Amino acid sequence: MxxxxxxxxxxxxxxxxxxxxxxxxxxxxxxxxxxxxPSLVVGQPPRWRLALGGLAGYTANLDVPQGRFFIDAEDRxxxxxxxxxxxxxxxxxxxxxxxIGTAIGAxxxxxxxxxxxxxxxxxxxxDVLLSAQGSARRGGxxxxxxxxxxxxxxxxxxxxxxxxxxxxxxxxRATRPFGMAVDLPRGQPPAPIAADASRAAAFExxxxxxxxxxxxxxxxxxxxxxxxxxxxxxxxxxxGLDQLLAHQREPGHGFAGEDSAYHAxxxxxxxxxxxxxxxxxxxLARDAESAILDEVVLPFNRLFARPRRPKGVAGLSPLAQARxxxxxxxxxxxxxxxxxxxxxxxxxxxxxxxxxxxxxxLKRWGDxxxxxxxxxxxxxxxxxxxxGEIEDVLGRLVGEPFTHTNAIRxxxxxxxYYQLQNTIRQTQxxxxxxxxxxxxxxxxxxxxxxxxxxxxxxxxxxxxxxxxGMDRGERGERAELPVFMVFLDQHYYEVNKSPSxxxxxxxxxxxxxxxxxxxxxxxxxxxxxxxxxxxxRNSPTLRQRGDDYxxxxxxxxxxxxxPLDPAFAGDxxxxxxxxxxxxxxxxxxxxxxxxxxxxxxxxxHYQGPLWEDRSLMIQGPEVLRLKTAxxxxxxxxxxxxxxxxxxxxxxPDGPAAGVAEAPGRPGWTAHLLTAINETGWGSKSATALKxxxxxxxxxxxxxxxxxxxxxxxxxxxxxxxxAMRGCRVYVIAPTQKxxxxxxxxxxxxxxxxxxxxxxAAQRMVPDLARSGGALHVGLYTRTTDVSxxxxxxxxxxxxxxxGPGMFPRLGLHxxxxxxxxxxxxxxxxxxxGPVHPFGVEEGGRPKIHMKAQFFASAEGLGILGxxxxxxxxxxxxxxxxxxxxxxxxxxxxxxxxxxxxxxxxVVATHDVYTAHCDSLRAIDPRLGERIVFLATVGSHNQDRRxxxxxxxxxxxxxxxxxxxxxxxxxxxxxxATWPQSAAELDAQFPETxxxxxxxxxxxxxxx
Length: 1007
Hints:
Blueprint: H1 6-19, E1 48-59, E2 64-78, E3 85-96, E4 99-109, E5 113-120, E6 125-134, E7 147-153, E8 158-166, E9 182-183, H2 202-219, H3 231-249, H4 255-273, H5 278-301, E10 308-309, H6 317-329, H7 337-365, H8 387-398, E11 403-412, H9 415-426, E12 430-435, E13 441-442, E14 446-447, H10 449-471, E15 483-489, H11 490-495, H12 499-506, H13 519-538, H14 540-553, E16 556-561, E17 580-583, E18 594-598, E19 611-612, E20 614-619, H15 623-636, E21 670-677, H16 685-696, E22 702-706, H17 713-724, E23 728-734, H18 744-763, H19 765-771, E24 774-780, H20 789-801, H21 814-830, E25 847-848, E26 853-856, H22 858-864, H23 869-885, H24 909-923, E27 933-938, H25 944-949, E28 952-958, H26 966-975, H27 982-986, H28 994-1002
Parallel strand pairs: 9-10, 12-15, 15-16, 19-25, 22-23, 23-24
Antiparallel strand pairs: 1-2, 1-8, 2-3, 3-4, 4-5, 5-6, 6-7, 7-8, 11-20, 11-21, 12-17, 13-14, 17-18, 18-20, 21-28, 22-26, 26-27, 27-28
Helix pairs in contact: 2-4, 2-7, 4-5, 5-6, 6-7, 8-16, 9-10, 10-13, 17-18, 18-28, 20-21, 21-23
């Protein structure tokens, strides 16, 4: 029977369809149509979303089966990035024996459960309805976002089950990978190979097996698997660490000893397989190590920080075996059959034991993501003790080589604001800001002055100048406007109140002036917007191209990434934390434009006297890696290849594959490598890069790692291991008063991690004395303006007066002390104090937010103690003084060329580097090659979130370019506080119960 009220339901459905504007859906196809190039205008996440679906079930009140078709409109009201609270309106048509019925309803929905009231239009009654929704498969049953739905009405006594579908007039775009794990090759290890038992080398392989096990255990120890807050947890820590130390104290059983025994054992085993031929045994051992590195260790570690299946390296072993067997059988002169068989069997057994080590790593950490195989299984110390060799290994692991013809500038604190604005104003063709925070409002101060100033002085001014230049014929034959893009994760977009600002940027050609709560800033916005819109109206070029061109190009194109998709429930807490910008570089001209890596966001939060942060500006071919990453992001967000904006596509005039080096330019000598962590279950190259650096730094190296979130137990284990093998390790974390994120869970977990490191350092005192290693836990306790050079120089002089202190064998040369004192005198008489972009008034102490690290080999550290650093330091201090006094004018940054003036009686950093190499070579030809410097800058924290879940970016600087950061890190170490007792450390963190800390430990992946 047809209900007379059915027309009411259809009218309701039409209304819901109207409010669900397709332009709000994820990247509608109509907005990607080509203009002069495909546009990226994608809008912001929709407020209303429509779904269609069908249900089938049974109604006990009527004692009949019942089916239902429905149209559902959903309004995401609270925390839409999580779907915390939604409101739903629904119209339904019911099918049952005897006729058709209709209903309408209203519901409130928590993430996957909803409750509401439904009006049966035929029976004239109200019913309570409870509903559960979820996806039976990642991405939906058919991987188009479908969700299962189970409805129960206790009043109507009705149960129904079915599916919800996205509307057919908007194309569904999956924004997460359908798989949560990455697949290793599957297969069984090769079967035993029949070989002469006398050549099986059982004794030598037993020593190799022992070394394989202990290299793994000594490199990535899990020191406090149950936490450190309880007596039981501390007892487990003591037993585990003491076991490692007891083993290391046995002669020849430290990390270096096990490493040596492993490679020597391989040589002996292969020599026995070769009938006692020692020379042949050495060659076969080298061949075996090369096969193990290329076919087992690198492929396995390249997937570090990702769930891997199956467990272990059994599926990789046939590939490694085939490669080794091919080498053996192709040798000239040919080897006899017994030798080939015995060598193959030795290799098989070694790889089998490495598989056991991979399985042990899984068991130790309880997570396939955290199993790391020592690179030492495939490398000998002499294969990674020079700058070039380490670069080669890191490049092979990441899958891209270092590029060598880049220019860099190291940027401190709130100069980031001006550097970012400068990149926008310099843009000729395209600019991408890929950021985690472009803050629209501050909860206690209204609209964010820094973000809106960046909009005015950056985007509005750049577009205005481009339009005026286009009309003057200054923009080439095509006379195109630059394309500006902002990529912003939905979580940060919501929590930092960005929608109104993003809407404004997206509609600059028609935007109205706003009251920003600051008269001067509001007036500045009104004048800038009026000038831009006047330029649009008066432009003959734009009049010829029409309104559609203006709409698409006089704007900032917005992509809100990783929006909530209920079909990917497991990804709800994974965020894109990458912080970078790049512009104009192309494959055919990699010297155009540049890039920026940072730990900062765009907002007042990151400016002023209380924010300690670092950024890196780059020019050269490495910028193209960012372009490739942006293109991959769009593909990950459901774009088709043809929808990628032309400016982000591969340049057809560039090299067919890879990144070409830039033409040689003076000062463009920086060696750079970009590593990216994709959001969620994607590639984690940045995490793998950090693990490899920690693995490879040789004994005697310095490793300095400040961070605002020092909470990773895995990184803590690797740092303890580095100290045990002779590295000098400096961990620096904020106190509760100096932490940007000082929530109780964060501080509790950081306290636990630092306590483990401190307790390990105390327990290892005699062992570190023997190895030459050091493990220091420092606290950032600064109380003065982060850009105040007078207080900083004063603090460094005070630290120098106390002697080498916490930086052994790196005492400042008297020439450096002289430069510091001279600069201090200048600061006392001529320094008015630092100037900041905005008068941000906040209470409290400075917050350290640095995500940069510095590494130097023992031979490299000698450079930092040379007398030539006296004039270099003087130049650095004068430059920093000028930067803090006029941050808007001095945008040079810290570069190797700025650290010294050529031809003025001052030695440049590069010359110091070269002179030190030469002096070491005079002692030993190999020593100069062992000077190693590495540094990293980016968004990657020392926490598990950055390791495993979030999108991150990390830029590695290799060689003398890393020296641009050396003085900054020396100052940081000199001015940190180094607790001498556990009580001193504990006093800087809030008290928590052991139960609370256990809870924090349990949820450490999410903190």
